[in-house]
Every structure is written in C-alpha cells, then in structure tokens.
Amino acid sequence: MKVIEPLNFTGEVISNESFIELVGNITGELQMKCSRCLTNFSYEISIDMDEKFTNNSNQEDDSIAYVEGDELNVAEAVVENVISTLPIKRLCSIDCNGLCQKCGIDLNKETCQCDNEEIDLRMAKLMDLFK
Predict the structure, then answer these.
(1) Alpha carbon distance 16, 66 (integer Å)
(2) Scanning 4, 35, 111, 114, which has the fewest C-beta atoms within 10 Å of its C-beta?
(3) Is 77 helix (H, G, I), strand (E, B) or coil?
C-alpha cells in the first residue's frame, strides 16, 4: 500500500477537562496491489474518525488513548484508522480473474492454453494409476 497524495482530515477538536476528542473524516487516495492479479490499482478512502486522547495516566476507559506530555501527534491514530478500515482481500475489480495457476498469465488481459481441468484432490492419486 502506498499513499498517492497526502491524506486530508476535515473535522474538529473538542476539549474538555478529562480528554481531547478528535472527530472528523479522513479522505485520500491509496495505491494498492490486487490480491488476485497483483496489478496496482487506485483505491479512494473516506473514513469517519472519532478518537479520544488524555494525559491522565489514571484513566481507566480503554477507548481513550493515553498520551505522554503536552503534545499530541495524531498521525499514528490516523494511520491506525486507515489501516483498520482497508479490505482484507484487496481486488482491482469485483470480477478480477487473477493469474493462471499454471503459467502465471494475467487472465484479465490474456487467455492461456493451460489445461484447467478441475480434479478432486481426494481422487488425484487415483488419476495417476490410469496414466
């Protein structure tokens, strides 16, 4: 995964006595590699973000991140939000055909002449007897 252009954050910072809350939306464009055909493709993101931070080490709420000192670097929280919302199986398109398992040709661009006969793996050893 690679960031094509800088991510944008639009939102607000809300401060109260016990924590600071960062609420907004992250947008941007990422370059990702397709899980099936291994080609790079562009993936646009729009992620809602709601993170709470505190410098109170006695805070017991797990939804509030502890921050040491008086400076708040939100980059780590932004990266975590982006990564946690990305699809596990990254596809260039829903109907991506992937690569041929025998010769490696990208089946979205070409067809191959490989024998694609489906063999039940449980019966594969029996097939050897008939050769």
Answers:
(1) 15
(2) 111
(3) helix
Q: What is the DSSP letter of 81?
A: H
Q: How far apart are CA 85 and CA 8, in angstroms?
A: 16
Res. 83: pLDDT tops 90: yes
Cβ–Cβ under 8 Å, residues 59 and 72: no
**In the predicted model, what is the mean pLDDT of residues 48-54?**
93
Tokens of 126: 């029996």
Q: In which residue are the tokens 């016990």 written?
A: 18
Per-residue pLDDT at 12:
95
Calpha distance 37→58 (Å, rounded): 49
State how far the Cα of 52 lies from the Cα of 21, in Å rounded to an integer. Answer: 4
Residue of 20, 40, 24, 8 whose CA lies nearest to 106: 40
Nearest of 28, 76, 82 to residue 53 by alpha carbon: 76
Asked if 65 and 77 touch (Cβ cutoff 8 Å), the reply is yes
**For residue 10, how many C-alpha atoms fall within 13 Å in the half-sphere facing its CB?**
5
C-alpha–C-alpha distance, residues 113 and 102, integer Å: 10
